[in-house]
Amino acid sequence: MEQGQESKESSKLASYDAYFERAQSRKKLPRSLQETLTEAFARIPVSSFPDVPGGKVIEILADTSVADTVKILSEYNIFSAPVKNPEAKTSSDWKDRYLGIIDYNAIIQWVLDSAEIAAVALSASSAMAAGVGAGAVGAVGALALGATGPAAVAGLTVAAVGAAVAGGVAAEKGIGKDAPTAADNLGDDFYKVLVQDEPFRSTTVRSILKSYRWAPFVPVAPDSSMLSVLLLLSKYRLRNVPLIQPGEPDVKNFITQSAVVQGLEGCKGRDWFDCIATLPISDLGLPFMSPEEVISIQRDELILEAFKRMRDNKIGGLPVVDGPKKKIVGNVSIRDIRFLLLEPELFSNFRTLTVWMFMNTIVTAAQETKKVVPAITCKLESTLASVIQSLASNSVHRICVVACEEDEVIGVITLRDVISCFIHEPPEHFDSFFGFAMKELLNQ
Description:
Elements: H1 2-26, H2 31-43, E1 60-61, H3 66-75, E2 80-84, H4 94-97, E3 98-103, H5 104-123, H6 134-145, H7 150-153, H8 158-166, H9 179-186, H10 190-196, H11 205-209, H12 226-233, E4 240-244, E5 251-256, H13 257-265, H14 271-277, E6 297-298, H15 303-313, E7 317-322, E8 327-333, H16 337-342, H17 355-365, E9 377-378, H18 384-394, E10 398-403, E11 408-414, H19 415-420, H20 429-433, H21 435-443
């Protein structure tokens, strides 16, 4: 068991190293400039970073339902939030007061896993006719289905799983199949199972965090350096870093990738920023991927397949393309799952809901133009400054790189990539500054 855990941790660190080494090797910047910038960020304390809008970090209590959590994230237009333990109000230790971070990644993983299990259950329409009480099957039914993963733990109705077992449905008929299969089996009953009834409205954030811990809670102190934070948000793939004052258990600030890139956009005109940002992105090695590595979705594929693809690849969005040449026609984000969960009445037929239909529907519902808003794009000759400006002004997490006049997607630049352009990791920095933080990260 210990060897397996060590192997998992080693694999994570290797993937972080591989990404960052690739990013650093592709940058055509003088070594002296990179070292000067890195030293400057190392001298800036985290306490100098601007507070979140309004000055108060949005937190979610662990007993909040998934439904209400999605509403909170949507209302405040945030991707994630710290989860507070209501049973530890008197504790002064942040480890007791905070259970983790909930984000759309964890929610979409739970939703899709639940949908796939429910698809099997609903296909067993004759289960109760067989005379076997679904409630009597219980956890044994979940085991028989292979539903021992997070979704089974996180509140899928026992009746649904039990009915599938009672009907003699084998696990291979649904569990493990792709999301379009699940959607086809569920049809219009998808929302009845997941949204209108159970478990969407009763499953709590606490139960999801037990199994879906996509966003580790890795806090830093006010006197930590901005270099450490920038490395966590780039090389080590965190989307947010909580700030906690030692001896004070509450989160004082919540530094996100988006906030950092918006901060960089405000540095336009400063020598250190302009000497990098005025370069074309190709000189910085961007995008940090080949055209073959771009993960996209065709406009006529099912929307559930799009969310599944994000889940499987652990990414926050996909360029929507048309045809074999991958001409970009839009973008779908993992945050868009909120429309499926909060406004199911917008979609008349989930079984055949394509990405394009979904995009047009949500744009119309938002009382914007009836045309799909195009994805934010750039070209290889675009400057890094223009990319940062597009990301910051549009509050998006990625920008697609297109080729020539064909608008063929040849790459994607993320917030993580942009931050990586401005720093490198000094020797021994991991051991000196990340020992505690990384152990927390890898143990979750």
